[in-house]
Amino acid sequence: MKIAYITAQTPYGPGESFILPEVIELKKQGHEAVVFPLRPKKELEKGQETAAVGKLTVRFPLFDFSVFLRALRLAILRPALVAYIVVSIFQYSGSFKKILKNLAVVPKGLVLGEEVKKRDIEHIHAHWASTPSTAAYIASLFSGVPWSFTAHRWDIAEGNMLSVKAKSSKFIRAINMRGVNELKGQLPNGLWGKVCMVHMGVKLPENVVNVNQSLFTLVCIGNLLPVKGHQFLLKALFLLKENNVNLRCLLFGDGPLRDELQQIANKLNLNSMVEFCGRVAHDEILNLYATGGVSAVVHPSIETKDGEKEGIPVALMEAMAAGVPVISTTTGGIPELLGDGAGILVPPEDSEALADAIEQLMKDHELRRKIGAKGKEKVKKEFAIDSVVAKMVELFMGSEDEK
Questions:
Q1: With 60 as the cut, is the pLDDT of residue 401 above it?
Q2: Where in the chain is the domain with CATH 3.40.50.2000?
Q3: Domain spanning 217-382: CATH 2.30.30.40
Q4: What is the pTM (predicted TM-score) of this model?
Q5: Contact 235, 267 (CB under 8 A)
Q6: Is 371 helix (H, G, I), strand (E, B) or coil?
Q7: In angstroms, rounded to a whole number, what is the distance separating the alpha carbons of residues 211 and 264?
Q8: For 234-267, what is each residue's pLDDT tens digit?
Q9: CATH class of the 2-201+384-402 domain in this structure
Q10: Omega of the bond prior to 11 within 30 degrees of 0, cis?
Q11: Helix and strand tally (H, E) in the chain?
Q12: In terms of Cα–Cα distance, which of 402, 210, 199, 177 is closest to 313?
């Protein structure tokens, strides 16, 4: 089967490393994937996985003179369709800001539709219920090729033409049950049958080296954004330091809170304990797990004041797949992943509870082993990339009558 994947930026941009294994596994299972990033940067991100997906990617900008000319030609050929798309955007976007965002992707959406027809694509799938799915919706209308999209977290809450997209699409994939319920809360009952739950998948490492770390190494992976809760982790580390607990914490990721978090670390005198490692290639993180370089992974996620929360973080799944014990919070879809002893859950924004959980893991080797083993089994059973992609292909190939 030949499938077009529409992403926000991947592989020409950060923040969507969870898509890479899915595309690679599609190829491994004998299908052909063509990736179209909506707003690509000029350079590929680092890493072997990114390079592999880059070979499957067709890159052209969201908007430039060549895109404008192609879109203008297509609009002249299909004026009624373009009028329908524009009217739908004005009628169903819900806010002036979303109208502008959706109108901005119309030219590329038309060009994507032409690319889909030219390349004999059989199905279009977009990641994000925001503008990537708007572009996929337009491409599907232009090409007549069926489409679907994966809805993640904030993009569900945004509510960008969700009913229109649901009606037009073959299915909507939610990555956890919370997402299923949130989508159903925004859709009329008659469209609930379009919503299905398929987790994001991770590759199970073949060989993992178990190493007894001379210094307990705690790792936190995530963009430096408010929803990730890094400030509460830093406060927990301060409490541990005050109790003469010695460890090393590596923060992988970048974002708008970098300077603020660095200032907090400086103020708490954590520079000898905390290292800001910046953004690194996805496969470097996987290699760190496989070579036994991580004692535990922590993900101090919160729910922000405007209601943003996590889905099921792939960063946790990847650590668990390697048998690394994890600590996180009871926010978003995280309890779905860490329930039944597959990880340690603490309340969000509770630095004392987080510090206690970290210290508990540090002092109890057997607990680390048990949690790591349960986490690995949970991921193997429910989140293995091969079974996840097989489920997605079934949905791609399923008849319209099934929905």
A1: no
A2: 2-201+384-402, 217-382
A3: no
A4: 0.87
A5: no
A6: helix
A7: 32
A8: 999 999 999 999 999 999 999 999 999 999 999 9
A9: alpha beta
A10: yes
A11: 18, 12
A12: 199
